[in-house]
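Milestone M4 deliverable, item 7.
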Amino acid sequence: MRLFYEGIVANLKWGVRILWRNIERRGPPVCLAALGLWAGLGLGGGGTLQLGFAVVFGAFAVSWMELCAAAAKRGRILLGALCAGCALSAGVLRFQTQQEAVPDAVASADVRGLHIDAFEGRLDIDSQTTARKNRKLELKVRALEFVGLNFRVRCEWKRPAFSQFLLSGAGPRLSAGTMIRAESVRGGDFFWVDARDIKRLEDARFFARFRAVLARHFAQGISAAAGKAGPLAQALLLGVKDELDTEFKGLFQEAGCAHLLALSGQHLSIICALVSLVGRRVARKEKRVRRVSLGFAWFFVWLAGPGPSLLRAIFMLSIAEIGKALDRPQSSFALLSCAAVLLALLAPSSINSLSSIYSFSAMAGLMLFAHRFSGFLKPYLPNSIAQALSASLAAICGTAMVSVLTFGTLIPASVLSATAAAPVMLAFMWIALSGGLLAGFFPVIGHITAPALELLQTVLTSILAFGASLPAIHLESDMAGRIAACILIALIIALIYAVPWLQWRNSRRTMEMLDSKNPSLRARGKILLFELQEE
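Output delivered:
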């Protein structure tokens, strides 16, 4: 038993040494920055611990390996990037702490005999519908009114002081940028306001009004083209889930396909593919078509709303296009790391949200494991099915530990349901997007697209119902059990890389043994290699 544990420790040390050697040779520094960022965010707190780690990494980078100049330069750059990532996580956590400090102070006003009566501010995002058909408003607060015994106090700031969530009853959809006043607010675990007590103080600015008009006309075109499937089409193309049935959304969650409803890179890829298809007919210049499709992707993000998943996808597309323009193409992990750093800088309040973590972990899983699963499945399945199934397996490998730690559930059936639902969703979005764009000019197009979309929705419902009927793994609320399950998942995932490595190592040992036994064969192989190089 002792030799067994010593063997495991020796293999772990050897694996860490090989991993660091590969990172030192070929790893982009931005990947180390992203690693430091996510490690710092995972530690949590107020940022002091992360800043301490940043100082330690920076000091070690300055004093490390002074004798070997080339290796020291590369090592210092990598450790400097890790230091920058830790410092960035400290700044993000400090920003979030400051944003939460004011609402906590406001909530404690009830202890002093005051209670909040009104909020004034500008909507940061479009109002959203909750599972109970209520409205959720995210407000950038600029003024507060407190009410006490026979007096009223008003606090006002020149700039938005903090963000605050409000819940209201069913009411009209409010677009981002609208200045509102919420009166007769009732507090508790959350702040509630009646829909009739929400008043518009002023209209949104020009671009916000223009965006609201475009979104409304596009939504009308989608409804005309999709018929009864209009709510699903609006949810997939605009992120508007107001009219989507609660039971239908529950099917997505029970089948492990809730990520298909969230706007992400899949939607941007469809937009870019459609624009590229039309652009190649008009411009016929690949570089110009790529840039026009990127511009339309940014337009779609502006129209649908900048969620964490969409921002991650558009940042990766933009950085990839900039790298191609500068003749400096970047690896997929470098693009993902740059997207994480940009999201932390431009949207620090949402970088460690659950949707952001799911988006980055799923993309990292695709980059790490998709080609491995594809290599395993291609000898046994057709190429298209193998690629789709490998993508689903890779995504669940990336998000499995997040699901276990957060919800204590794991849905293995999501591999089958997501693989079967993906092509149906792709066809649905293609038809809904093209039909929604054409229905505004040719209303008759709805008679053609609506039956097709309704049929695809029926097929999708059957797939989700089958996936939801399969058993799921539910863990207890004990955090120790969840951590043990995550360790088991990590060991299973490690086998994906361990098995091919063991096969390569065994084959290398076999070749070395044959070379040692047959020196004449090795000499002939060297002569043959020399002759091939001369030719």
